[in-house]
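Title: Comparing notes on inverse folding

I've been comparing how different people in this forum approach sequence design from structure. To keep things fair, I'm posting one structure and asking everyone to reply with a full sequence. Here's the target:
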């Protein structure tokens, strides 16, 4: 396969210069730009945080997708901007989830609904790939916030014609943050918890 034929979606919860709390933001900001220099058709996908909305970032609304969350179907607005070096950046907007002062929590601890926020982000990223009229080959996921994406690809979307052949790469930047949540939340993603939790462990 020629490099320019390789289409990659880079999904991260943060990336410079748009949103950053630590090293994940640095890597997710720099790596896609460097990969693009090699001729790879790569796109960066981020949540549309309050901090981005308040910066001097010119965006345009390009699509809307329905995201299944439990018994509900929630709307996600997809905005596009062009980053350094011509990198295409897609921002997933959901005001009740991402229009907050901080990325993950405040002085009192993590946001109570972080599972829902990033499960929605993972599902919306896949719905975006499904809606795109292009042949995505690889989704590169980063840390626990996008950890559901590879599982969803091989589970919920395993029979989807546009998604079933996509390969996934998962990079752990900080093993100290694992995104551990109650098992009862898993059905919100459409996954069957009985496939993952067994009495024998």
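Reply #1:
Here's my take.
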């Amino acid at each position: 396969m020629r490099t320019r034929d390789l289409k990659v979606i880079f999904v991260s919860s943060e990336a410079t210069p748009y949103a950053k709390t630590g090293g994940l933001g640095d890597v997710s900001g720099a790596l896609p730009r460097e990969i693009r220099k090699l001729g790879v058709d790569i796109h960066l996908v981020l949540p549309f945080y309050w901090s981005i909305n308040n910066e001097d970032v010119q965006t345009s609304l390009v699509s809307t997708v329905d995201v299944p969350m439990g018994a509900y179907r929630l709307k996600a607005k997809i905005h596009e901007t062009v980053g350094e070096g011509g990198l295409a950046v897609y921002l997933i907007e959901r005001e009740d989830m991402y229009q907050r002062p901080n990325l993950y929590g405040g002085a009192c601890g993590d946001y109570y609904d972080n599972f829902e926020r990033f499960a929605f982000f993972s599902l919306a990223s896949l719905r975006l790939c499904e809606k795109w009229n292009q042949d995505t080959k690889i989704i590169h996921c980063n840390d626990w916030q996008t950890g559901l994406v590879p599982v969803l690809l091989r589970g919920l979307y395993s029979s989807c014609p546009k998604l079933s052949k996509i390969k996934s790469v998962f990079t752990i930047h900080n093993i100290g943050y694992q995104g551990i949540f109650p098992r009862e939340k898993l059905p919100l993603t459409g996954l069957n918890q009985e496939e993952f939790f067994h009495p024998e462990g």
